[in-house]
Amino acid sequence: MSATALHAADTSARLTATALSYRYPDGTQALDDVGLAVAPGEIVAVLGPSGAGKSTLMRCLAGLHSPTSGTVWHDGTDLARLRGVARRRALARCGLVFQEFELVGPATALSNVLIGRLVHQPPVVSLLHLVRRADREIAVGALLRVGLEPQLRKRADTLSGGQRQRVAIARALAQQPDVLLADEPVANLDPRTAAAVVDQVVALAREENLATVLNLHDTGLATRIADRIVGLRAGRLAFDKPVAEVDAALLAELYAGEEQ
Ligand SMILES: Nc1ncnc2c1ncn2[C@@H]1O[C@H](COP(=O)(O)OP(=O)(O)OP(=O)(O)O)[C@@H](O)[C@H]1O
Ligand SMILES: [Mg+2]
């Protein structure tokens, strides 16, 4: 795909953004005519300098921001047109690993992951904290898959950074999503732990055939794990290329003028 905006939903994609623009209330144009399509099982890494609009893009894709113009399509449905239960269902199919979605510190790792299951229940059930056995099994399964069995009943605020990050990933996986959106899921981890956690996310995403978009600061890590790289610069799509076509010169141009 060339670095131009898509203007119609790609029907083979699970997640599409067409001519997506987003302006914050203070007038900052964070995204300008961005197009993106992600197929099931595809891993897309978003790269770009600080302030390029990466987090804004993730928030639009996740339905947390409504685009100023343009459209986000989940499975061919315009997210902005969905209301009520239909919207809740669509968003429940979207697993998020965002830094600001902190864990509940005093709650156990397992309880934090069970929160991922509540999105599939009517609000009244969530409010009553009724936990079905099936949900518990899925939550435990997600924690096992990220290697946190021994920490299952530990309080989240007693876990290490890497363990907490893996709880957040388990919570997103427990949602059994079709789409996985991760905004700097391994920021603040040492490089080795960061790489191990990202490897784990990618392996699980491939296993589950999730359409996956990751924002990563580490270009080396991104080019190692992604199928495609999307370069964002000043809110615009700089490039969208298979990883084999992304070389050091292209990355240098993307980050030109930035301390990396
Ligand atoms: N709430 C907000 N109100 C106004 N402007 C905002 C707001 N949040 C972000 N911006 C601006 O929008 C632009 C894109 O921000 P965004 O957070 O999407 O960048 P980013 O690529 O994620 O950067 P970083 O790599 O530093 O996380 C920036 O110019 C930023 O200052
Ligand atoms: Mg950001």
Describe this structure in words.
- With 260 residues, the chain is an alpha/beta fold.
- The chain folds into 2 domains: 1-92 and 180-186 and 210-252, 3-Layer(aba) Sandwich (Rossmann fold); 94-176, Rossmann fold, CATH 3.40.50.
- 35% of the residues lie in helices and 23% in strands.
- It has 9 helices and 10 strands.
- It has a 6-stranded mixed β-sheet with strand order 6-7-8-3-9-10, with helices on both faces. A 4-stranded antiparallel β-sheet has the order 2-1-4-5.
- Strand 4 (69-74) and strand 5 form a beta hairpin.
- Helix 5 (133-145) packs across helix 6 and helix 6 runs parallel beside helix 7 (191-207).
- The two termini are 27 Å apart.
- The model is unreliable at 1-5 (pLDDT under 50).
